[in-house]
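Q: I'm building a small set of examples for a reading group on sequence design. Run inverse folding on the following structure and report the sequence directly after it, with nothing in between.
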């Protein structure tokens, strides 16, 4: 589908100029990092295969979290390709959390009502906070599948370090320091451009995006094992993991 021409006045404010700069970076990533782009595209295809195969599934409620994980994955791809690197980690955390919540609620169906009634009252909200603690959910994931649960914990902590929380690494990966004779200039890049620092940060976030995309799908496989196997997703995941 051809993109329409920008509406009149599109390029007269800083927000739309920022959007255009982000799109140029997306084009550059697509053109210059074909291996990373292809891997992320392959993972997206697996999400779509799983979603298309969920019709009439007994675990229909967990399907909502499959959809949300996929949506967050797509948004993470957009931000990573555009060079919005710390911001990408916040979405990657959400992608992983959706998979973890889906798994938790599939194993604890009685907790669906608790989760759905979060906003009924302060008492209900506190009940959700008490039960749905990420540490406990990650522990459950490890009990279900030690390897995938351990990977999920490692990746979750990485998202916290690199942008899902305002931690030191989140700042440093886009901080540029220029020392002059009389002053030191600090610059935080909203969109990374061409630099050695960009190359390292971009390579890392693209790999992390792939790892979390695969990890989230693998966690959800514990709910839909038979369908994953029939659809060929299990074998495809194992092939993608070899490069991660």
């Amino acid at each position: 589908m051809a993109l329409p021409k920008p509406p009149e006045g599109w390029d007269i404010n800083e927000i739309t100029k920022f959007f255009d700069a982000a799109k140029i970076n997306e084009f550059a990533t697509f053109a210059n990092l074909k291996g990373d782009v292809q891997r992320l595209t392959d993972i997206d295809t697996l999400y779509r295969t799983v979603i298309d195969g969920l019709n009439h599934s007994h675990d229909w409620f967990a399907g909502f979290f499959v959809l949300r994980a996929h949506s967050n994955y797509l948004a993470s791809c957009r931000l990573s390709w555009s060079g919005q690197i710390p911001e990408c980690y916040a979405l990657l955390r959400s992608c992983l959390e959706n998979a973890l919540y889906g798994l938790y609620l599939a194993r604890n169906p009685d907790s669906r009502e608790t989760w759905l009634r979060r906003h009924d009252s302060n008492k209900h909200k506190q009940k959700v906070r008490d039960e749905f603690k990420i540490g406990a959910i990650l522990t459950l994931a490890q009990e279900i599948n030690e390897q995938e649960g351990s990977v999920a914990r490692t990746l979750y902590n990485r998202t916290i370090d690199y942008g899902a929380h305002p931690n030191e690494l989140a700042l440093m990966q886009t901080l540029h320091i220029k020392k002059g004779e009389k002053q030191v200039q600090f610059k935080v890049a909203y969109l990374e451009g061409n630099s050695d620092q960009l190359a390292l940060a971009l390579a890392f976030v693209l790999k992390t995006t792939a790892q979390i995309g695969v990890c989230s799908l693998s966690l959800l496989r514990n709910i839909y094992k038979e369908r994953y196997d029939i659809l060929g997703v299990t074998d495809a995941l194992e092939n993608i993991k070899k490069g991660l």
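The first strand starts at residue 175 and ends at 179.
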